Amino acid sequence: MPVYTRGVDTSTIVILDFGSQYTQLIARRIREFNVFSVVLPCTVSLDEVRRLNPKGVILSGGPSSVYDATAPKADPAVLAMGLPLLGICYGLQFIVHHLGGKVEPAPAREYGHAPVEVVAESALFTGLPQTMNVWMSHGDEAKTLPEGFRLTARTANAVSGIADEQRRIWAVQFHPEVAHTPQGMELLKNFVVGICGAQPDWTPEHFIQTTVERIRQQVGTGHAICGLSGGVDSSVAAVLVARAIGDRLTCIFVNNGVLRKDEFLKVQTTMREQLGLNVVAVDASERFLAKLAGVTDPEKKRKAIGNEFIAVFDDEAKKIFEAEQSAGEEVAWLVQGTLYPDVIESSSVHGPSHTIKSHHNVGGLPENMKLKLIEPLRDLFKDEVRRIGRDLGMPAEVLERQPFPGPGLAVRILGEVTAERVAILQEADQIVVDEIKKAGLYRKVWQSFAVLLPVKSVGVMGDQRTYANTCAIRAVESEDGMTADWAPLPYDVLRTISSRIVSEVRGINRVVYDITSKPPGTIEWE
Length: 526
Ligand code: XMP
Prior knowledge:
This protein folds into 3 domains: about 10-195, Class I glutamine amidotransferase (GATase) domain (Rossmann fold); about 205-400, HUPs (Rossmann fold), CATH 3.40.50; about 410-515, GMP Synthetase, Chain A, domain 3. The chain contains 14 helices and 18 strands. The chain is α/β, with parallel strands linked by helices and about 525 residues long. The strands form 3 sheets. It has a 9-stranded mixed β-sheet with strand order 2-1-3-4-9-8-7-5-6, with helices on both faces. It has a 5-stranded parallel β-sheet with strand order 12-11-10-13-14, sandwiched between helices. Strands 15, 16, 17 and 18 form a 4-stranded mixed β-sheet that branches. The longest helix has 29 residues, at about 300-325. It is globular, with a radius of gyration of 26 Å. The structure holds xanthosine-5'-monophosphate (XMP). Xanthosine-5'-monophosphate binds near residues 403 and 523.
């Protein structure tokens, strides 16, 4: 059972996950009301649910039919716990099926937008209009309601809202958690605040205070180490831990030779001077570039960088470890910036995710160091991490940084990675970032960057014929990096980027724009 950072009195909503792609969204929406929410696999024991002392329980949607042999199983006794309960989509069907109603395959699958009519008063619909546009995604429908239940809403085709106030159970067939249901937030608030009476006590100050306190107790007089990437997660994790144990945290920042231009120095300055962190900076570019020599396969590049990172990190950690030991101290802790989506994924009803990338984890530390993990962000979603960072007084420049892959520019240099090609891409990349920032687009797009292609073409500059590299510009809009649309950057921004790159970067004479979405493309080119 995970240990949450909430205090014992914090209002909590438990979400039982039946495998919907939207389950995490329910949790995020509830946290937007400053109410703590946790996602547990639907198979969890009710004792574990009770231990969290929740104000209410939500049964999520899911891809199965209640009749599927492989349908995820929750203990039906959850329906008799006496806690306010909200069923969403599959959650509604689970309730109907287990309380004696009837669920059947719908004659017409409802998918997408649908108008729903509220047909009876319900605490869930307080303040909502009588007709709402909602997002549907279901193949089965409730045909007969269990005893005690009333119909509260319907579409032209199917039951879309039911309630049994006596048993304190409400359910909707549609998805209030998605943006396509404009009144969804109000509906969720009616449940969480109105029906469950949850208090908005999950605030950044509360989180910082309880987390710092807990780390202080855990670590005692021990020492901790933390790998910094310059990105949001590891920086916020480090600042939180430093709040708790000060200089007894040592951060390790490695130059892997494929960082952005001047990043190695800039990150050090920010981390030391603005964030007051104790940073050991290791320039291992040559080691990394030596491992990358002759490698063109994307996965082999990732492996080479991942393995070398572990080797460099281990060397540095060992030095710190030995120095502390000879001073009679002990480094016992390793800080990691794991976020809540990774925690949910690894305990989901689908089993551990294959999407967690191996090089995100610092593995391979020597056994005899026996480091214990501190993961101060494991209860948080990415947007919450940024809020915490803001409350910790961290600069926007760190918190609003676009995601940057662990293998860095290596996966944006197609073909072999050499020092010369890294230098060319660093220059082009900096122009892209500069111009996107100048146009006020840096925070509007998810990522914007340059890719160096192994393609040469002919050009003319002044009176000279050129024969040089091609660079692709990639800019995408996305919520979470899982899916993405190519961004329609204004032509004048593209024009400036292109002409600056061709005139300022030696080695590039042609610029193209990538107009592929994900899927079927990926964000990175490798
Ligand atoms: P893709 O290219 O898979 O990228 O559409 C999705 C998001 O993940 C980032 N990315 C990585 N991050 N190590 C990382 O730390 C990697 O190997 C890696 N590959 C992709 C990518 O930048 C985007 O935000």
